[in-house]
Amino acid sequence: MNIPRNAVMEGNDVAALNWTIVSQAAIATLEEELASISRFSLDVSGEFKTDGDSVKVEVIDGAGEALKNTEDWNQSELKTSSVSVTLNRYSRPAGLSYKERKSGVQLANKVQTLVRTVAKAFWKDLMAAIADSGAEVVNIGPRAGFKPEMMADVIWPSMTNGADAVYLDRMYYSRLIPTNALALNLADGAYSIPGGIHYVEGVNVLAGNAGVGFATRPDALAVAVRLPNIDPKLNLETQVVESPKLGISLLLKCWPDQGTETVYISAELLAGVAVGNKNHLRQLSGAAPETEAEGGSVEDGGGEETGPTEEEGA
Which of 160, 185, 200, 259 could form a disulfide with 308 if both were Cys (CB 3.0 to 4.6 A apart)? Predict the structure, then answer.
């Protein structure tokens, strides 16, 4: 985000904030940190809720087979189900001095840090949900042996109809980064992954603490985003900022401490995640494969490969 160096605060009172700078910084960071959650079953609304509330998120289980040269249009095989998602309120307040509020660059940097902290807390809970799901583990081995062709040969076919999106830690992700400008961007369907390959932190808690990523289809994870309800009696200045790309809203609130001429600002996200169809979710492990002498495993070829189960949906 580019902030003019001559950007200054609007207003002279102690509580004044340049909401244009604050909003632009918040939106840019929100889109940077949460862009890839659009690959999940995402339910976004501007309604106000309280942490601990539950909402139902619709997931699409299937639409039936495509019709060829049909003359009967009044039919539907669309199948959906709902997943209950509990909302959590992620927030990070910070105090801003008069100097920090007056400098557009310093203000933007502070706001971006707050929003990034909130987003990372959400991702941490998402990883915990996957780790607790009991989703199947696919071993892709140590980083040194990880090759791009494993995306199409191992990860994509690990579930019925293939993985839609893949999330990898920094080290594995770096092995796939294009080496020239003509290569397809990883987030745009490279390596036969239609929903893209994305970098994410915190995957080490997956696959028995040997995790290096996960693969998913949209119905595997349900995510809900709402706005946190604020008691009007608190008399706080609030601003709702919405990402035009994601449709996700973030609440920003501020309040002054007249005694120290400090203004406190808080970035707040009300969101939740729950596992839907875990048959369309794979935890990726970077553990060294067992040798045949040690018995082997399905993932490393030491056992018989069973393939997808019949219960997996489309």
Answer: 160
